[in-house]
Amino acid sequence: MSEDDPNKTTASDSGVSRRDFLKISSISAAVVPLIGSQVVEAAGTPVKIYGPGKVPMELTVNGKKQTLQLEPRVTLLDALRDNLDITGAKRVCDRGECGACTVLLDNKAVYACSVLAIDAQGKSITTVESLSQGNKLHPVQQAYVDNDASQCGFCTPGFIVATKAFLDKHPHPTDEDIRRGLSGNLCRCGTYHGIQQVIAQFAQKGA
Amino acid sequence: MPDYSWPIAEQRTLIGKRISRVDSPDKVSGRAKYSYDYFQQGMLFGKILRSPHAKARIVSIDSTAAEKMPGVKAVEILQKVGATVQWEGDEIAAVAAVDESTAEDAVRAIKVQYEALPHLVSDAEPPANAASLAGPLSDDDIYDALSNQMPDQDLISLLEKNGVSFHVDQDFLNELKSSEVPDPVVQAVAKAQFHETTGARSNFQKAAVIKQGDVDQAMSAAEGTIEGIYGVPLITHCCLETHGSTAEWPSKDQLLVHLSTQNVSGIPGQMADPLGIPAANVRQKQDHVGGGFGSKFAADRWDIAAAKLSRKAGGKPVRMMLERDSELKVAGARPSAFARVKVAFNKDGTITGWQSQSWGTGGVGGGGMPPIPYVFNIPNQRKEHIAIRTNTGPARAWRAPNHPQAAVITMGAIEDAAAKLKMDPLEMFLKNIDLAKPRQDIYREEFGIASELMGWKDKWRPRGENISGSTARGLGLSIHTWGGRGHESNCDLSIHPDGSVDIKMGSQDLGTGTRTCILIVAAETLGIPMEAISLHIGDTIYPTSGGSGGSTTIGGVSSSTRRAAVQAREMLFAKVAPALNAQPDDLECAAGSVRVKSDTKRSLSWKQACAKLGAMPATARGKNPDKEHPPDLTNSGVGGVQMAEVEADIETGVVHVKKMVAVQDCGLVIDVKTAETQCYGALIMGISYALFEEKVMDQLTGRMLNPDMEFYRLAGISDIPELVVHMMTGKGYDEKGVIGLGEPPVISPGAAISNAVANAIGVRVPFLPLTPDRVLKALNDRNLD
To answer: For residues B602 and B618, what is the distance between their CA atoms, to the nearest angstrom?
Structure first.
């Protein structure tokens, strides 16, 4: 976008382009107070903005508080992978199409590539790494092993987290539930047959 | 000499059983590390500037602004001014910066001027007379001809007549020789006259004309003929882990690269030359790879760039993983193939003649003719192929190169012939199965099993006669073959005096179960649990093993592991024999002990036995192939049969696969569980390319229109029907030895599904993917007839 875009709002008077403004709108609900913010007029109302440089953030990942310095535009996925070296969630499409980056945010499955790290503050972030304790796998993970539901394994962590969230919500899923509930994750090697067996196993005995 | 042969069925405790893959716990827990996951505090991030044009000359490149940007640590120009880019996304320059966004900003700051040139991204049927006869042959032309089943004598006379357009050097000749090209062909290349090529080459080149028997006579004598058009578009590999690597220089002339590859041992040799260092100074390391499917054999230009950037930046790691759009644009596509086919047959279903005009593109190199007619060696044939040189991007091997395309074309034409005769295609395939020599008996047996599993006889109806309301139901089938002999592999196995065992091999596990199978073979041979063995692969510090392509891995690694384990076991027996008061030949390993065969009560526990080794471990190197240590443990040549059941809505054009059956032979199966998974996966990948996948090119701009995972559609879990897999094992199969399975089961799904849709809706949908628009068009075209 060019600087002399005719659509720019009053926010641009304080050096904020429309693109930045859109980012600001998406973080308007941030609940944790931040240092490094400033208040500008945007569309006639005062708005707190953060960045564009690095700002301090606090993320609660797998029960542990992590303090980071990140630009507000950094996604939760990149914060986990490239700052905390928590790499179970994979970057595959990076735009909410494949589910390989699925994590739990306050126990709800989300695509970590489509959540800004700054928006994940104050929420409980659960990644695939926390589901197992040492060599003791979570029952969903064990079922993936038993049913040979991973090949190259790159989609597997996302599927595991999505399956756990799905089964928590649908302990006795119907075929239609499965079709809908796990259609947000994609696999290239073709492990869906094994994943169907995993779900069938839980559907029979209840999660 | 010890007996290396595979244990007989009664003696096997692990081989041929259903064993869970050993790396699953790492994968399901997120512990498994891929190249993309390699991370170090302070590492740098690489980005590539790519051409927005499908074809253009580079007029100028100015990177000064990028180099001055804060946070930018290195810039590399990858193409010379004056060079011609041949596809959208071709690499122009690369940068490394402290974070990804800075690297992206720097890429945008590089100014490149292009002179756009006319491009061709269409692989539609070449206009009449558009194809030029081959002029002087380029190196690509020669490779195409060789991979094209062009008879040696034809290629030799073409070389004599037309000469070559490049200077043939010894390296090129050596490369041909090492690829097992017959000597007369190599000599003809060496002797070929050099001719300067004049002017632009035609985009359409006659790549092959092949004749067998007398097709004109066969056509005129036939009791029936059909003519049809069939084809498969360009599709991409779409590996979930994109291509790329992280490169770092632990010292000034030592490169450590974490490259996502199917070809661990083959990487140093590819990186050495462009970096000006000995291959011995390159170390490749990888634990897991997130999909390859044939597209990850090379150290690519972006990998070389990452290594150069890292060197410039003082050796810090530079991560260079492709973005999703680049992955789909430049990191490989399966060549397209289309054909107009005429088949001659008699009323009893006997096929007597095949005539085809085929075309397709594998990108700028053109590409070869698929092996049509596939599997069936029809007595009278005439085949012409036109290779289209396009700016669609590079082609790469995609599981079973050329075979899925050949299956769609061939099995489609035979099914159409059966439909014309109102004959059950199963009957027609069986009628002609002797043309599938030497595997006709395997197919016959597999057809029997497959038709039972599908319920073919109860369900099959003549074409278009199973429609109720808007729902049309149909069945289709296809057969396939593949080689799959084990590649070269070296395995070091050590039995340590404390009883521990380790294996080292420069191989890789693509998610096919390679780790699991190596451990099964070693544990079976040594009579100890798999968990008692530590396995090290994925690193060039281990003995070299071949790239994982063409279904060659399982035959290679299982053979080298077996030989290493038998040899190490012999060394152990020699040390243990005196303690058991027996001859080494009388000893065996079983159930965690070393014991006397004729008196199994005389035994030592594994640990006690290993203690007899003294101070040094028993280390053995097993190889494949190894004529000095017979027998041959691997083999080549498998047959498979697949059947598909579909429902198609003739009002909306939507196709659903309802059931698929795969019956597959692959010789001796090491692990039935992972073998079946390979087949399930292949069926699913097949459903995906049959119904959804296509690399769509914009004719005007020359760009790919769907370089993301929303519009480049992969099958999802809701597209997957009941799948039935049956592995052929036991007598007649086990004795063949170990044969690869990566390619065979992915060949037939497209053909079987296409045939099932034709059977359901009453008309052939010529080209995959079988999208609603294509289905409706086929129905509409028939109504116009």
So the answer is: 22
